[in-house]
Design a protein that fits this description.
Two copies of one chain form a homodimer. By secondary structure, chain A is mainly beta. Chain A has one helix and eight strands. Helix content of chain A is about 10%, strand content about 40%.
């Protein structure tokens, strides 16, 4: 079936969550949001573009930092309300300069930082 | 720092997205939602409980299907508005009986089912 961005289920703000996963290591890098146009641009360009909810603007990952995400494959979940992006990540994915955004673990009820910024 | 569920950033509905990842294989299994109480229950019980937006009720994964998710570790992202759950998944994670919910890939503009239901 030909894919049509309009067949995804967006929330009241017209957004769908997208999980970025490093295709090589399997590390879950980050979660961000897309609207239909961001989905279309990402598929067309092979580079990941999100919608920034804070800036209310398209956000092509790495446009300022150079830490781009090359799209290897986009997948849709069973409810069509979430996307999984298999990507090749250039440099750190997180704005804190860490490889991934999920660097705080909860261990025995205590927050532990388990990943340091890259240098 | 002691973890406090109130320090997470929930959306207008009081919910935070939670990504479940198979700790052994790295497969991203599903995305669902939690409220503060679901986060607390999951940490206390070591079994994953979500909040079902459609049923407006707590949803302990596997309570009817037996396909439970044992929590190995909960991680928080940099913005504190998304969770990553490293889990041991018993049986398929998806209600379609597939191992994971992201079983539809978009390849050359066409939707391709890349995972079959388990038997």
């Amino acid at each position: 079936m030909q894919f049509n961005t309009e067949t995804l289920r967006y929330d009241a703000q017209g957004l769908i969550p997208a999980i970025a996963q490093d295709v090589g290591t399997g590390t879950v890098l980050m979660l961000a949001w897309m609207n239909a146009e961001a989905v279309a641009r990402t598929l067309a360009e092979g580079r990941v573009t999100y919608w920034s909810r804070s800036r209310k603007a398209f956000w092509t990952k790495g446009e300022s930092s150079g830490h781009v995400q090359r799209l290897v494959e986009m997948r849709i979940d069973c409810d069509r309300d979430c996307l999984l992006l298999l990507v090749e990540q250039v440099g750190p994915a997180c704005h804190t300069n860490r490889h991934a955004c999920f660097y705080t673990a909860i261990r025995d009820g205590v927050e532990v930082v388990i990943m340091e910024p890259e240098v």
